[in-house]
Amino acid sequence: MSLATRLAAPAEVKAATAGGGVAAFAAMVGLTWGPSTIAIMGLGVFIRPLQMEFGWSRAQVALAATVINLTVMVLSPIQGWLVDRFGSRRVVLPSLVAFAASLMALYALPRSLQVFYAAWSLVVIAGVGLLPGGYLRVVGTWFDRRLGLAMGLANAGIGLGNILVPLVATAVIAAYGWRWAYVTFGLIVLFLVTPVCWAWLRERPSESAVPALDRTRASGLRAAAFKTAVKTPAFAVATVAYFLLGLVNTALISQQAPLLIDAGMTPQNAAFVQSLFGLFLLFGRLAAGALLDRLFAPLVMIAVCLGGVAACLIYATGAHGNVVFLAAALLGLMVGAEFDVLGYLVRRYFGPAAFGKTYGAIFAVFQLGGALGAAAFAYSHAAFGGYRQGLYAAALVLIAAAAVFAVLPKYPAAAAEA
To answer: What share of the chain is helix, strand, coil (3-state, %, to 5)?
Structure first.
């Protein structure tokens, strides 16, 4: 290496770190105000206002969560193909505008459950580029040694959204009504998120000295990389593990406050526990990201799954007092770690060539598990008159998930070199 090259290297590394840092920040902002937070985590705030205006039952409004999960399941592989084919930036930016417009269009929602469900499906379709895989693909192009921390920073946006979206929605609903809350979210996406992503959400320029491949050949290489990935034992193991996590994830997030109220807690205290859950979800994103750069990723997931088992058992026994806060914290850490680890596993096991498709395929299976688990949890409550049996079943599912993570092999050297 020449003297000039050695002198230039630190400057190049510094520039790459700066570019990756602002890209991770832009991804965090995008995920804070994206479909994962506004459509799913924010839905609970709107249940009572919609009931009061339209006369729908809680179950009818909550069914929108299942519709959203199923729509995401279908869209995840499509998003993966789009970001691999065109790059995340070209997919994210138009999706932001379409997503903002679809949210503001909810202002005109009529008294029709069919239209309500269809509208939420269209909102998610409009935001197809804004699912986590699109943002994490950008972050993955910038980092290797600090990949886990960078993905943790990006994924922290979902934790922030879990805190900010309900606060904004509650304040606007109290002052102006639920219709203007959706308009407010659309304006935030349009005038805050879109400029940030336009300015800073960029993939790392190629550092290869080889001339750029033509589009057809590049597409063929990505397709081959995806076909190779799905044939590996690691892909099968990760898919099963995330399906099991999905069975528990949505059910516990959506029913945590109701199960606490059923156990005798006041709505105000249940809301406080839910806020604590959100704080630990945010902490879990950052902590898991930092740990991934130091520990084998499956070990992180085994630990948080076992913490989730403890939380389910605490809730199942109808415990009161400070131990309830411990349960919420353990659940927050588990949910916070899930997608940090998924993005990290995809990058480490399968390389960057087909990141979007591979992440999208596993994420789709996770969403299928979420839709099935939420419905099963609700059915268990109706059948047994409480959540205890469902919580015991969730604990068993998480034990199974931890066992599946335990059989993941070591990272292949070829994927890291890619």
So the answer is: 85, 0, 15
283 burial type by CB count under 10 A (0-12 exposed, 13-18 middle, 19+ buried):
middle
CATH placement of domain 18-204: 1.20.1250.20
Range 222-418 has CATH code 1.20.1250.20: yes
**Each residue's pLDDT tens digit, 112-169:** 999 999 999 999 999 999 988 889 888 888 877 777 788 888 888 888 887 888 888 8
Torsion over CA: 51, 56, 57, 61 (sign): negative
What residues of the chain score a pLDDT lower than 70?
Answer: 1-18, 206-223, 267-268, 271, 319, 413-418
Q: Which residue has the tokens 């099991």?
A: 244
Task: Tell if the pTM clears 0.85, that is, is over it.
Answer: no
Q: Where in the chain is the domain with CATH 1.20.1250.20?
A: 18-204, 222-418
CB 38 within 8 A of CB 162: no
CB 69 within 8 A of CB 370: yes
